[in-house]
């Protein structure tokens, strides 16, 4: 109000222009709206904070246990080919075994994950290992195996076979770990695209004292 009265005074003194009371009030309200717009423009828009999930790194199993991380790759372009990879380490973080195999006739990335885990379990049984923690970076696969999610018809045969392989007194367990802690198995599975044969490859890592 005072600002508008001051402007009206200057208009009267220097330009001999006078304003009626009603016009002055209207001008005041126009000034108020103008100042409100300027204030709103100055207020920074609050952006929601970006929350980054912490990177979860691979952890060693308890003493006298080993841990086998498996992963499957699937070709999204052809929707048929893929690969399986797994790696076995002990509680000293030492690498014991690694496996890689090319896969054919897959219908989804989940099938590739399941095939990789099934092969890893078969391999550990063949090597006569006990007390093995199997880790997959597919939460859906883990939930299907543990019965937390209803079995899909297409996945039923392989899931039931995995469940049967895990049973017994070998101390086999299956768990979920994010991909950030499963990078080695993920890389092995993806490198199988260069394989020209479906014959699997096993690598034994020996430590010489």
Give a brief rundown of this model.
GO terms for molecular function: nucleic acid binding; RNA-DNA hybrid ribonuclease activity. This protein is an alpha/beta fold. The chain has helices spanning 2-15, 21-42, 109-126, 139-145, 156-166, 183-191, and strands at residues 66-74, 82-90, 95-103, 132-136, 173-176, 201-204.
The biggest sheet amounts to: 6 strands, mixed
How helical, in percent, are the residues?
A: 25-40%
Please state the structural category: alpha/beta
CATH architecture of the largest domain: 2-Layer Sandwich
Oligomer: single chain
Radius of gyration: 34 Å
Kindly, what is the distance between the CA atoms of the first and last residues, rounded to a whole number of angstroms? 91 Å
Q: How many beta-strand elements?
A: 6
Secondary-structure element pattern, one letter each: HHEEEHEHHEHE
In spatial order, strands of the major sheet run 5-4-1-2-3-6
- Poorly predicted runs of 5 or more residues: none
Percent in strands: 15-25%
Number of helices: 6
Count of all domains: 2
- The CATH superfamily of the largest domain turns out to be Ribonuclease H-like superfamily/Ribonuclease H
**Average residue pLDDT:** 81
CATH topology of the largest domain: Nucleotidyltransferase, domain 5
Q: Please report the first level of CATH classification, the CATH class of the largest domain.
A: Alpha Beta
- The backbone outline, from C-alpha atoms, is elongated
């Amino acid at each position: 109000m005072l600002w508008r009265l001051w402007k009206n005074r200057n208009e009267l003194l220097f330009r001999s222009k006078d304003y009626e009371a009603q016009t002055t009030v209207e001008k005041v309200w126009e000034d108020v709206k103008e100042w409100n717009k300027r204030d709103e423009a100055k207020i920074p828009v609050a952006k929601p904070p970006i929350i980054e999930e912490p990177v979860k790194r691979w952890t060693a199993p308890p003493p006298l246990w080993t841990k086998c991380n498996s992963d499957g790759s699937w070709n999204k372009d052809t929707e048929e080919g893929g690969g399986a990879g797994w790696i076995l380490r002990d509680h000293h973080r030492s690498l014991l075994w690694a496996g890689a195999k090319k896969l054919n006739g897959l219908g989804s990335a989940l099938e590739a994950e399941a095939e990789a885990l099934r092969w890893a379990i078969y391999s550990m049984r063949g090597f006569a290992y006990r007390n093995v923690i199997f880790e997959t970076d597919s939460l859906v696969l883990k939930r299907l195996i543990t019965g937390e999610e209803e079995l899909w018809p297409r996945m039923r045969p392989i899931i039931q076979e995995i469940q049967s392989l895990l049973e017994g007194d070998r101390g086999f367990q299956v768990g979920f770990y994010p991909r950030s802690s499963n990078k080695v198995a993920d890389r092995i599975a993806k490198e199988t695209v260069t394989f020209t044969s479906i014959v699997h490859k096993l690598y034994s890592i020996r430590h010489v004292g």
